[in-house]
Design goal:
By secondary structure, the protein is mainly alpha-helical. The chain is built from eleven helices and two strands, in the order ααααααααββααα. It has one domain. A hairpin with a 2-residue loop joins strand 1 and strand 2. The longest helix has about 35 residues. The radius of gyration is 23 Å and the shape is globular.
């Protein structure tokens, strides 16, 4: 198995596209850093930050008293009020200037870009063998089809992990060079109606890992479609469409139908349980979302492995 994974890993790194995607990721981090540095140079730290937060609290309370406010806006306003009150009570000044940690947090958006790259690799790693006719060379070897397909999937996951590590490491290095120091090492999260202090490094690592769940599920879906339909373009098209539109469509459905909570895209964002917003459907828990993700994951894998093992793929 190790040799199979190593062989697939070498195939990926022999393609020019792999280095293009890596270069794009690093370039985007650099561009974001340049813009953040420019904006940061115009920001001045306020000496009356407690007074400013108090004014924000008053404004939020007025907004909260208005009629017709939706539950998502109400939850976000309540969260802002609680966080600002906690800062005032515990003398924790919000970061007005960029720090290495806030820069790493800002680049969390690029996890979606990592997902896009992982989808491209997952979509081509099986379908490409059929397109190039090299699938026959794989199947004549005395190795089970299950091991062949598993090695390809493991390689896709390893690629995603590598790109995620590059994103985190390069963001940290660029942030350290541009903004220096480590700044405030405490992150405030609003969980279950309470403000909780979290270690900044631990929070960022956890945040990146939780966001990578979406990457993993989309890559797994692309891998399944690639295996079942033997078409990389179909796998990329469907997976990218769902990556960018699935969550928005599910959010609209969740406003009217409780059954939306069973959708894959209602459960991929586990950060909704760690102080960012609230679950799409009231009553959802992290345990429920993890259970749904496991069910979808098993379903995708069963479809991929059953079709690959039973189909006359050498024909």
């Amino acid at each position: 198995m190790l040799n199979l994974v190593r062989n697939e890993w070498m195939k990926i790194h022999k393609r020019a596209g792999t280095y293009v995607m890596l270069g794009l990721l690093i370039l985007i981090i650099g561009i974001v850093g340049a813009f953040e540095k420019y904006d940061d140079s115009k920001v001045k730290e306020s000496e009356n930050w407690k007074q400013e937060l108090s004014m924000q609290i008053e404004g939020d309370k007025k907004a909260l008293s208005q009629e017709g406010i939706d539950k998502f806006s109400k939850s976000r306003i309540e969260q802002n009020i609680a966080l600002n009150e906690y800062r005032i009570e515990n003398d924790i000044q919000p970061n007005s200037k960029e720090t290495v940690w806030t820069f790493v947090e800002t680049n969390g958006f690029a996890v979606t870009l990592v997902g896009l790259f992982a989808i491209i690799v997952a979509a081509g790693i099986v379908a490409g063998e059929f397109s190039w006719g090299t699938i026959k060379l794989l199947l004549i070897r005395p190795i089970s089809r299950t091991k062949i397909l598993l090695s390809k999937y493991i390689t896709v996951i390893l690629y995603g992990v590598m790109m995620l590590a590059v994103l985190f490491a390069v963001s940290f290095l660029v942030g350290l060079i541009l903004f220096g120091g480590t700044g405030q090492s405490v992150h405030l999260a609003y969980i279950d109606g309470k403000v909780v202090e979290q270690n900044m490094i631990g929070f960022l690592i956890k945040n990146y890992l939780l966001k990578s769940i979406d990457v993993t599920m989309m890559a797994t879906m692309a891998f399944m479609i690639s295996t079942v339909f033997r078409s990389s373009s179909l796998a990329i098209g469907i997976s990218l469409f769902l990556l960018f539109m699935g969550a928005n469509a599910t959010g609209l459905l969740a406003m009217k139908f409780d059954w939306a909570k069973y959708s894959l895209f209602a459960n991929t964002d586990l950060t909704q349980y760690t102080g960012f917003g609230q679950p799409l459907v009231e009553g959802m828990t992290m345990g429920f979302s993890i259970t749904m993700l496991i069910i979808y994951f098993v379903l995708f894998q069963l479809l991929a492995f059953l079709v690959f093992n039973k189909r006359d793929v050498a024909a």
